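Subject: Oligosaccharide deacetylase

B.,
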Amino acid sequence: MQKDQLFTRRRMLLAGVAALGAAGTAGVVLAQGGEETAGTAAAPVAGPQARQALKPSAFRLQPLTGDGPPRAAPRRLKVRKEPIMRVSTSGRHMVLTFDDGPNPAYTPHILDTLAKHDVRAMFFVCGECVVQNKELLARMADEGHVVGNHTWTHPLLTELNRREIRSEMESTSDAIEDAYGERPQWFRAPYGAWNRAAFQLGAEMGMEPMAWTVDTTDWMEPGTRTIIDRVEGGAAPGVVVLSHDAGGDRSQTVRALREWLPYLIDSGYRLTVPRRRA
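Prediction pasted inline below.
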């Protein structure tokens, strides 16, 4: 609980940073009109047809540990100057993302709701939470969700040097691979505070940077109805929705998701995740 309160205080203090991070990243789209190179992300895949990261039996029979074979070097990507914050789509597709977890008090409820509606989402996880909740990443893999890197301790990257940023990112990718079964292909800067080093190091580690289009503001605990209104009011083709499954009391997020998710589905939206790069 102490750590959750710390996350909440840090988010409140740096709310302005997050807003600037989102506002300053407009104009970058995922797989826009074939302009992306083969080394970047492909078009999104609809939730029910999303690739399952690992078959359940494969994950349980072949866990990746520190004693396993050497990790393969990721393929370096083009270094971006802005994060991706929308998906290119010819239909009514949206992407749901959850930050700061996993948290055993809230993440299972979110996974239950997603499973009930056969929807896949992206989870940007913190390494220090991963090592305490590996079973939740195993479940994400089993159920076809995409897991991204959100650093180890959720620091403000603009206050760290390059070596410190690398350590935060690299250690988290290692922990994700051990628990989820694959190294992450996506990275999100805490508070939406990007800098040149984050873009460069992410590309070196084979991760595309992703921001968001709609912030539910659930990190402020504004009330369940406010969260619902923000998602339903911001829904549009190509939108990336930001929510949180840790970093504070996320009971409002859990309750809101149970209402706005079926609303989006009934409104004709398909909830997508990015297709895995080879």
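The first strand starts at residue 29 and ends at 30.

T.
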